[in-house]
């Protein structure tokens, strides 16, 4: 007969913990929050110290009944929700509905779901931390005040269905500001001169660097001509050789945001997908004879701290697997990345480094394996010795012109034997070896190539780059990034083109109104300061209701002004030339989650829609009559198909090239990788590299 009830959030977590605790414990899932503010009204008594009016969430009645019935059969109830603000709030709400005394030691927390961690946690239960609860409650009420006060105003003045929020509004503004930077960008001309120089059997690539001993930028073709005139008949000689040893240190283990960024770079995961898969790995995977085990520590964290126990295990594994020289003299310690970091939990790491990815592969789905491998490799590498790089710089002169060649090689791989962090531009660092040269050595000119370039505008935000920016600005917290990015797309404020965010007309219109009447909501510094205030509430240094009162005092005045002065805006749909085949009316352009589409102007009587297709200029290789056009799947993924569909059903995922194969004249497709873009024939083995345009992301 069980004598204790344990309540967690999810059935998967309940299943894992239940196996560890045995028959004396009943483990049930609350399925997340059981109480919240009502959806139909603001649910906050502003005049009564912002007192919230919580109600049972619709659909949770049966869950609560099951929990209440189970609680009557046991002597003790433990609340084991996740170890963060949301988890603490869930525990507090459960204590309220189950009549648990808040002063009781009923709260159990663990950073990893392993047998030892769970059993240790139940030896030291604690009271519910009301500072954490108040911090969560303050955030919830703050977001409710912003959302439920501004959103109805936008419905009335702009368009129904719109919403505003602290983090989402700043995110959209960042995307719009970047687009404005791109639009205002004026390209500047610059030139490079590359010399390919022979020395024996080797060839050295050197770039122009200086003229008459002073560094010289090349801004025009006239500047290039001056350099070419200064070169002595193709005679080049080595003026200086500099060799240095450089240490390269490993990246720290993952935080939530760095995991989202790296999963985007290396696995092409959206932030929401990364968090979903990480949740599965945290809650537990069936490992056969070993049973169900949580494979990674808690995945919502801004800390890079690692427990001494985990470091000891990593020490043994690394020394045994790679050798003693791969373990540093003292275990690595990573400091907090920013003053805003809460540092409440450890970094994201495998619960046991001994469960290497290959041994776990049979028990994991493809996505689970790829993310687990990323987490495991990042953690192991973070504990290893630095890599030692040998770098060489060769200064070369010809007349009054100076050229420079750089090279490097890995002398000792260190952490790089396991893992190297990705770059936003997708490039991979490789050895660039230079031949042994001495001062005075002569080099023979093979080619001398001047090349014109133009500076590039700043790149649009990818998910990874936007998450990184939000974190650097101190906006939001690890748990908010994924849902925020989903929301701004669902609302139609932004669209994704080639994996980059672009603002929509609707998004720009909403932000214009927000900038005029609620500038502090869009102010990154103001939003970051609010996060600091919430942290102070969590630390018990500030009262939650005073934080809200300080915000609401000026916010209420702005609301009154906006009600009076914000003008109603009529959004007129742009009419297209295309006619609806169902009712004969014109199609109009609409903005959806994945960009523009065509919708019948007869809505709601006619709900016909049609995608806007982009002609690739490539003929269909199957029917010969149609053309290949760009389309989007239901999930927003771009593919290419014949415009004669359904008569012709030819489709492909890869972008077709207008250039036919020079070997067999068949269709070629573009293949992108970290090494660049190449064209690949769909019928024969012909491939060729494409000269990518200058992109200084």
The structure class reads alpha+beta
Tally the beta strands: 30
Number of helices: 18
The value of Rg in angstroms is 30 Å
- Give the domain tally: 5
**What is the spatial order of strands in the main beta sheet?**
8-9-15-14-11-16
Largest sheet: 6 strands, antiparallel, barrel
Q: What proportion strand?
A: 15-25%
Within the CATH hierarchy, at the fold level, what is the topology of the largest domain? Answer: Topoisomerase I, domain 2
What integer is the average pLDDT? 90
So what's the overall shape?
globular
CATH class of the largest domain, named Mainly Alpha
CATH superfamily membership of the largest domain: Topoisomerase I, domain 2
**Corresponding CATH architecture of the largest domain:** Orthogonal Bundle
Euclidean distance between termini CA atoms: 63 Å
Helical amount: 25-40%
Q: How is this fold's topology laid out?
A:
Elements: E1 4-8, H1 11-21, E2 25-29, E3 35-36, E4 44-45, E5 51-52, E6 55-56, H2 61-71, E7 76-79, H3 85-97, H4 115-123, H5 130-157, H6 166-184, E8 189-199, E9 202-211, E10 214-215, H7 221-230, E11 235-248, H8 256-267, H9 271-283, E12 285-286, E13 292-293, H10 308-322, H11 357-360, H12 366-382, E14 387-398, E15 401-412, E16 442-454, H13 463-473, H14 481-490, E17 494-497, E18 500-503, H15 505-517, H16 519-522, H17 524-538, H18 544-565, E19 575-579, E20 586-592, E21 595-600, E22 609-611, E23 614-619, E24 627-632, E25 638-642, E26 651-652, E27 656-657, E28 668-673, E29 676-681, E30 687-690
Helix pairs in contact: 3-5, 5-17, 5-18, 6-14, 6-15, 8-12, 8-13, 9-12
């Amino acid at each position: 007969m069980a004598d204790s009830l344990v309540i967690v959030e999810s059935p998967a977590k309940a299943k894992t913990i239940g196996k560890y605790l045995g028959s004396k414990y009943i483990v049930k899932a609350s399925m997340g929050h059981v109480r919240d503010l009502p959806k139909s009204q603001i649910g906050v008594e502003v005049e009564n110290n912002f007192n919230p009016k919580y109600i049972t969430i619709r659909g949770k009645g049966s869950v609560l009944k099951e929990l209440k019935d189970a609680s009557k059969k046991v002597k003790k109830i433990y609340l084991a929700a996740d170890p963060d603000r949301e988890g603490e709030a869930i525990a507090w709400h459960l204590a309220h509905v189950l009549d648990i005394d808040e002063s009781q030691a009923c709260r159990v927390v663990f950073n990893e779901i392993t047998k030892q961690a769970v059993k240790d946690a139940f030896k030291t239960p604690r009271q519910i931390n009301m500072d954490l609860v108040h911090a969560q409650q303050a955030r919830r009420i703050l977001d409710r005040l912003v959302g439920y006060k501004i959103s109805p105003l936008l419905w009335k003045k702009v368009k129904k269905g719109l919403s505003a929020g602290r983090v989402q509004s700043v995110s959209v503004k960042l995307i719009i500001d970047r687009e404005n930077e791109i639009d205002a960008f004026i390209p500047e001309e610059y030139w490079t001169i590359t010399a390919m120089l022979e020395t024996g059997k080797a060839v050295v690539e050197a770039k122009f660097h200086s003229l008459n001993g002073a560094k010289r930028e090349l801004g025009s073709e006239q500047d290039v001509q001056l350099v070419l005139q200064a070169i002595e008949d193709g005679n080049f000689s080595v003026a200086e050789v500099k060799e240095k040893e450089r240490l390269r240190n490993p990246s720290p283990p993952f935080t939530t945001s760095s995991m989202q960024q790296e999963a985007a770079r290396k696995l092409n995961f959206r932030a929401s997908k990364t968090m979903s898969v990480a949740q599965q790995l945290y809650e537990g995977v069936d490992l056969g004879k070993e049973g169900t085990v949580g494979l990674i520590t808690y995945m919502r964290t801004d800390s890079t701290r690692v427990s001494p126990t985990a470091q000891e295990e990593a020490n043994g594994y690394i020394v045994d697997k790679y050798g003693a020289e791969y373990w540093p003299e003292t275990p690595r310690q990573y400091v907090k990345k920013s003053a805003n970091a809460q540092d409440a939990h450890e970094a994201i790491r495998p619960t046991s480094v001994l469960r290497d990815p290959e041994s776990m592969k049979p028990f994991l789905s493809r996505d689970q394996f790829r993310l687990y491998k990323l987490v495991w490799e990042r953690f192991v590498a973070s504990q290893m010795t630095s890599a030692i790089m040998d770098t060489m710089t060769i200064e070369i002169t010809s007349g009054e012109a100076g050229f420079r060649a750089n090279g490097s090689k890995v002398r000792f791989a260190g952490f790089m034997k396991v893992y190297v962090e990705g770059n936003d531009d997708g490039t991979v660092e490789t050895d660039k070896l230079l031949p042994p040269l001495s001062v005075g050595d002569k080099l023979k000119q093979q080619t001398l190539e001047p090349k014109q370039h133009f500076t590039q505008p700043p790149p649009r935000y990818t998910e990874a780059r936007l998450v990184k920016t939000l974190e650097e600005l101190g906006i939001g917290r690890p748990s908010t990034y994924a849902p925020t990015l989903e929301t701004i797309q669902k609302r139609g404020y932004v669209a994704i083109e080639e994996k980059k965010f672009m603002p929509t007309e609707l998004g720009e219109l909403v932000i214009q109104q927000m900038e005029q009447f609620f500038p502090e909501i869009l102010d990154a510094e103001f939003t970051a300061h609010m996060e600091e205030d919430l942290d102070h509430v969590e630390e018990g240094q500030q009262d939650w209701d005073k934080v809200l009162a300080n915000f609401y005092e000026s916010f209420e005045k702005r609301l009154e002004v906006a009600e009076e002065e914000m003008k109603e805006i009529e959004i007129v749909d742009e009419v297209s030339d295309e006619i609806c085949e169902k009712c004969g009316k014109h199609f109009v352009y609409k903005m959806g989650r994945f960009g523009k589409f065509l919708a019948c102007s007869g809505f709601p009587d006619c709900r016909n829609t049609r995608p806007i297709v982009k002609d690739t200029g490539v003929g269909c290789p199957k029917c010969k009559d149609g053309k290949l056009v760009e389309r989007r799947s239901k999930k927003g993924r771009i593919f290419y198909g014949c415009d004669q569909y359904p008569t012709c059903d030819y489709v492909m995922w890869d972008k077709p090239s207008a250039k036919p194969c020079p070997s067999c004249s068949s269709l070629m497709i573009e293949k992108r990788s970290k090494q660049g873009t190449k064209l690949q024939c769909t019928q024969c083995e012909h491939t060729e590299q494409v000269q990518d345009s200058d992109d200084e992301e």
